[in-house]
Amino acid sequence: TDLQPLKEVYADYFLIGNAVSISDLVGQRLDLLNMHHNLVTAENAMKPSYAYNTARQFDFQAQDELVNLIQQQDLALHGHVLIWHQQTAEWLHTSDDGLVLSREEALANLRKHVKTTVEHFGEQVISWDVVNEAMNDNPANPADWRASLRQSGWYQAIGADYIKEAFIAAQEVINENNWDISLYYNDYNDDNQNKAEAIYQMVKEINQEYAKEHNGEQLIDGIGMQGHYNLNTNPENVRLSLEKFISLGVEVGVTELDVTAGGEHAPTERELQAQAYLYARLFQLYREHAAHISRVTFWGLNDATSWRSAQNPLLFDRNLQAKPAYYAVIDPD
Ligand code: XIL
């Protein structure tokens, strides 16, 4: 194939990532991954529920297997994820009777989970999603970020400060070891202005407080805009959110990009073109702000294995062939 590698086209802008499972790290899929990308995120393997065995002890065997395969390639690794309301062992914050644990117990579990995981992977990762999807979808009063938080198990047991506590626990391990690892807050519906405002207020307050307590040091290094978009997404809203986050002085990662088009049928030419157009608009925007964007990660290699497979959201089709969206990303102008 004579395609231009995405990672070369964007070498002067930001890293190009993708989401992987073990089955992507072999044969043709591995070739495509290596050709276009220099960063990966584990699509599922490094989520909190997979860090424990049935005896509720830490067990990183499956995670290590994937990470070891990644380390054999020329790929950086982004850690996903430490604290989330999904794919998490419930007992970390909720008793077997379904009652939330006391604040002290849940906080101890949160700190232990974060510290042990960060310690375990060390500098095999360049960054971590420390907290994922803590915010409600369309907060009514985004100026009050605490009132905008999802009522997750972690929130119910600990309260709004579980977020800052998770970042502090990660930062402590990093400082003790003198590691260079960036810490991210990651969320979706990032183009929704109410949600973006609530995230902005949260990161601003947490970072200001921490800076006061720690000689001006930064706690939250980056905001992850997942970027799960569709053909109705207005790139001007993406711009507003991106610029709002950049104004906080943090880096932005586009962490899980995909653009659904159509559904339950082979994509029509019109859908493929509309999808390509939105990808082009997004990459124009990302290029414009490249100084503040650390990476753009696609959420899957091709339409066949995407988590939103029915809606064909990626750059490569079911046969791993480049779609119009690929050509739009290569040359968005
Ligand atoms: C998704 C995976 O792609 C699926 O395979 C899994 O069944 C559910 O999780 N936001 C996130 C990702 O942060 O972890 C999610 O990944 C997609 C939405």
Automatic annotation (TrEMBL):
Domain spans labelled GH10: 1-332
Top-rank lineage group of the source organism: Bacteria
Active site: E256
Family label: Belongs to the glycosyl hydrolase 10 (cellulase F) family.
Name the record gives this protein: Beta-xylanase
Protein source organism: Amphibacillus marinus
